[in-house]
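In response to reviewer comment 3 from the previous cycle, which asked for concrete evidence that the modeling workflow produces usable outputs, we include below a single protein chain processed end to end. The sequence was submitted unchanged, and the resulting structure tokens are shown without manual editing.
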Amino acid sequence: MWTTVAAQIATATDQPFAVERVQSVGGGSINAAHRIAGGNRTYFVKVNQSTRLGMFEAEALALQQLAATHTLRVPQPVTWGLATSQAFLVLEWLDLRSRGDWSTLGRQLAALHRQRGNRFGWEQTNTIGSTLQVNTWQADWVTFWAECRLGYQLALARRKGFQSDREEELWEAVPQFFRTYRPLPSLLHGDLWGGNAGFLVDGTPVIFDPASYWGDRETDLAMTELFGGFDPEFYRAYQAEFPLDSGYPQRKVLYNLYHILNHFNLFGGGYGDQAHRAIDQLCRMATNLL
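The workflow returned the following structure tokens.
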């Protein structure tokens, strides 16, 4: 496998390359990850079964689009393909740490979110974790969210045994959160939790493992709060640069229900109970908005 990977790196960089060292890297539950080195060059390589090549192609495209905005640092995709019946994605190696300039991350994410599209969705299907993420273009955000995000995950969850006697009430509640709010399409990271952000040694923020599409910027902010949250300086800087609508605290529960359901669909366990609690909360909040 590594001979094929090295050959593709050489072609992509127009420089000879041979893999001299391979080191397994932890931290992910979807792909196998490796650090490969040869000469004075080092790369990060994700590996999965061959049927996952499309997932890597979508990730590379998202990284290229994010980089083209010149707002946030992302790993540069080098090459991707198939080797010995396995799919791989080669990225530049970045030495990351968990502490850095959170204020700059907030400002730079705000700058990313100022990149505007004219529709909601993306040019191809991608993945959130390993779950298919449908990105069919829509002119209306609520329609997109209902069909391509919440509805899709609820349908998967039902097939895995999830049942809510308040689902009809939930669907009646959703429009209440958008009565006076009309988001514009922003370019999103799409899966922005703490495990997908880090910092270079000089404090420069880096985001990675995107599930990008054009959508409501609040969804990225909501995801940052789901699993422990980012540093308070991040939120202060973002809010100063690009203030959020007053209805964000309610909508973030709706937006994070998508990710909670996805975790139920991927891992099961207590995520089902967490989804039930979020649905109950949304139904209560919608009643108060009437």
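The chain has nine helices and eleven strands. We consider this sufficient to address the reviewer's concern, and the full set will be provided in the supplementary archive.
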